[in-house]
Amino acid sequence: MAELITVARPYAEAVYSLATEQQTQSKWSEALAWLAAMVANPDVAQVVTNPKHTAQEIEALLFDVLGDKASNEVRHFVVTLIENRRLTLLPEIAAQFEVLKAQAEGVVDATVETAFALTDAQQAELTASLSHKYAKSVRIVVREVPELIGGVRILIGDDVIDASVSGKLQAMAASLKN
Q1: Which terminus in the chain has less CB density within 10 A, N or C?
Q2: Contact status, residue 53 vs residue 44, Cβ threshold 8 Å
Q3: Comparing C-alpha atoms, which of 4, 1, 6, 31 is closest to residue 16?
Q4: What is the pTM of this model?
Q5: How far apart are CA 143 and CA 118, in angstroms?
Q6: SS3 of the chain
Q7: Residue 151 phi, psi (nearest 5)
Q8: Tell me: the pLDDT tens digits for 125-161?
Q9: Which keywords belong to this entry (predicted)?
Q10: Residue 21 and residue 57: Cα distance in Å, rounded?
Q11: pLDDT in tens, 23-51
């Protein structure tokens, strides 16, 4: 996984730099999302990784689906990825592009894992608390993870805030071993 990120990062940074220069971040975001979804599709992945298919056939397939989302810059980018046999990096390139875009907008993404569903009020309160703590706008995605037993675990950037019952039980068990 780390290797994919390492190889994809320069592509994402180059595309983000171009998008920023041309003020087309949202168009690039949409195009990259479409391309990433296409390449993640098993049928398309089978075509783009099969050496029997020519670069022109792969281009035609991708550009037919992309339609008007494929500006000249997007087309050149896709051709570059095809030439370098890097099309399978598109999901990671798209993800890193979104991270760069969010950073520039002062937004941080957080994954909130909870044993039980959160109400809208609880989500709003949690978002406000995290925004205050990180001094940035925070977007949360809530996932129910019954194994937590109770409480929440928050993943934001490299930080993990574990206020779950299972996390506390694990910490207690670890301290008893010492």
Answers
A1: C
A2: no
A3: 31
A4: 0.70
A5: 9
A6: CHHHHHHHHHHHHHHHHHHHHHCCHHHHHHHHHHHHHHHHCHHHHHHHCCCCCCHHHHHHHHHHHHHHHCCHHHHHHHHHHHHCCCHHHHHHHHHHHHHHHHHHCCEEEEEEEECCCCCHHHHHHHHHHHHHHHCCEEEEEEEECHHHCCEEEEEECCEEEEEEHHHHHHHHHHHHHC
A7: 80, -165
A8: 999 999 999 999 999 999 999 999 999 999 997 789 9
A9: ATP synthesis, Cell membrane, CF(1), Hydrogen ion transport, Ion transport, Membrane, Transport
A10: 31
A11: 999 999 999 999 999 999 998 888 888 88
Higher-confidence residue of 158 and 84: namely 84
Residue 38 to residue 177: CA distance in whole angstroms: 49
- Average pLDDT score over the chain: 90
Cβ pair 55, 86 in contact under 8 A: no
Nearest residue to 100 (alpha-carbon basis) of 161, 4, 32, 41: 32
